[in-house]
Amino acid sequence: METLIPVINKLQEIFNTVGAEVIQLPQIVVIGSQSSGKSSVLESIVGRDFLPRGSGIVTRRPLILQLVHVSTLEERRRAASGESGVQAEEWATFLHCKHKTFTDFSEILQEVEIETERTTGTNKGISQEPLYLKIYSPHVLNLTLVDLPGITKVPVGDQPPDIEVQVRDMILSYISNPNCLILAVTAANTDMTTSEALKLARDVDPDGRRTLAVITKLDLMDAGTDAMDMLMGRVIPVKLGIIGVVNRSQHDINSSKSISESLRDEQALLQKRYPSLANRNGTRFLAKTLNRLLMHHIRDCLPELKTRVNVLTAQYQSVLQSYGQPIEDKNATLLQIITKFATEYCNTIEGTARNIETSELCGGARMCYIFHETFGRTLESIDPLAGLTMLDILTAIRNATGPRPALFVPEVSFELLVRRQIKRLEEPSLRCVELVHEELQRIIQHCSTYNTQELLRFPKLHEAIVEVVTGVLRRRLPITNEMVHNLVAIELAYINTKHPDFIDTAMVSASVSSSKSEPLPDGARRWKSEKAEEAGTDDKSRGASQISLYSSPSRSQAVNLLDTPMPATRKLSQREQRDCEVIRRLIKSYFLIVRKSIQDSVPKTVMHFLVNYVKDHLQSELVGQLYKPQLLDTMLTESEDMAQQRNEAANMLKALQKASQTISEIRETQLW
Predict the structure, then answer these.
(1) Which residues contact residue 316 at a Cβ distance below 8 angstroms, ignoring those fewer than 6 apart?
(2) Do 458 and 636 meet the contact criterion of CB atoms below 8 Å apart?
(3) pTM for the model
């Protein structure tokens, strides 16, 4: 099981190279109040001075410390295994300068200070960018530790006003990881119940399953007091245990007292003051405990970690595939994208597309709805006699007879009035064309949505494809409109009274004569303007209603001495009533015939001149306008975002594959 910690260290290196935190790896996070002795504990575990020390905030950015146990220099020389080419007992490397090896720990201290000041400044500022340090030594146990800035309350120097919130958020971002162990450091000369570190640990780990408490500065307690109750867990119980340690004082550091001497003095103090607990406290016991806890924690997390890596590998493979491979043959790539778009466009119209909309009608289905629901119902809602008053019909009949009294109902009046009604079918027919044209435009967006990755990869090609398809639709729209206009014009050109479905005039006349005793239609009782009836007692309107119904529009303005005033109203004769009813029935019969014809022919016209034309000529139009040697480089220029995303996905996939290989090398027997 000793091999588990190096595996996690290796995984950290793998993921650090791509700068991603998609995998939450097991590690030990050290938290505590400012100047509680966190960095001193780490130095004691390593056995070397390598961290900045002093009063106030010294640790100003996260330090991820990886301790790697190696054989002694003599053993390595004897084995000639070449575990490392470094000819030193202990050495260290930084991730930001991984090719440089540090054998002098004073240089490590200097490098930590320089790198910290580079990102945080020289006046106590803080940064969330971690610093990675790996130490190889025969005197350490395999551990991965994270040293965080101390919890502070009042900003000093260049620190922002919300320094407390920033430090707290930084600590929570690390200890919220369920795969990390929390090392909560508290000074022995403070009240343990006021410990900020234990409070934060309890917030994210209420059960205490991954929290270990460390009591520092046991030698600085007031005379007559001891830490027995704290170490025994009587003040605040901690499941993983409470371990007491003795730190080096500032005087010890200034006098260059070695850590090995400090460890001997620590053991002596523990034997003197806490003899019953001496073997379960101290820096050496803390290092062994951390090593054991981390190994067991890694063992518990490993199955979930392996699953997570495999899932992410599959996801990034899919993402990378969607971004497409770098272009090798531009001609083939352009043709492939054009063909795919044209095929998807046609399939959407036909209803055979791979991506079927479930939220709304789309493509051919929407066109069918437009033809048979929208257009059909609009035509059916048009009243054959709408806008035709009794006055209009009577006036048309009399105008058609000229100066001679008519013996029969004149055909001219019927044709004049029926043309007027047929003309009303043109507007909804043209609106039908417009709706289908809009749907063909929407299909462009629909196809772009389901070819998003390819078309986003080449934004200029996407724009060009949309422009070409829009241009084809724009050219076909006036042609289709003209044909629909001609359909109505054809119906207006010749009124076919011999149509098989048209009712016989004689039958209509006989039917009207037989029903002459029925109540007359509205407006037939009085031959006068409806406006005159509504005017009531208004003198001005009544004067207007007395104008002769047979005069020309300018008749009322002219002065004609031969003009004889006509009565404003009179009862219609039986013949006038009959003639009017005959014309109404004939108009209705013929209008229904024409409406049925228009309802059938307009969809066919739209399909032939617009929809089918676009389907048949779309690919040839795209190829003809876009497949040109001089346009290849322009069309297939990738967006910068897409190229960057593909590179990031490729790097992440490589890291995940390496991680998967690293985890798979662990044998089941090594877990126990």
Answers:
(1) 649, 652, 653, 656
(2) yes
(3) 0.54
